[in-house]
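S1.2 Input.
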Amino acid sequence: IYTYNFMHIFSSLSTLYDRVGNPYLGVHIDSSQTFVKEAIQQLQEAGVPQAWFDNQQTRDGLHHHITVVNAMEYARLEKEGTLPNMEGLIPCEVVGPGSVQKEIKGIPHTAYFLVMDSEPLQSIRALAGLKPMHFHMTLAFNPKDLHGPDIDKSRNSLLTLLDNNISLGNG
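S1.3 Output.
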């Protein structure tokens, strides 16, 4: 299993907006950071089509993020007046690249992402009365990203590293 030697990044929690303008709490990740570029390059070298990375950029713009409180949760917490607020830098562990697949209405969907861990972010969710979340940073998907209670983006979804190359398990 591939890991980034338990590399940690530090970033702040902020209100971000999805493509239709709904607010959510997340950690903004600068796409020019070396670990982001390396993960994308490894997935490209393993055969993930460029169009799948373009799907992520079309959805999110030229940045990446870790969702901490999704838009539906945000709206409920804001209405209740219990929206969490945290100042300062929060550590996140970059675990490694992962993948999930699911067939929806006969169409195969695939997403690639970096699995992330952060106890402080899990604590923020717990204090807000929310369930734990599989933190991840989406890198590529086709045709749409996958989310939901049946989608596991935890360490269980990590891809295998063979001879310093990611194995997508398809050949």
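S1.4 Remarks. Strands lie at 7-17, 23-29, 64-69, 89-104, 107-117, 136-142, 160-162, 165-167.
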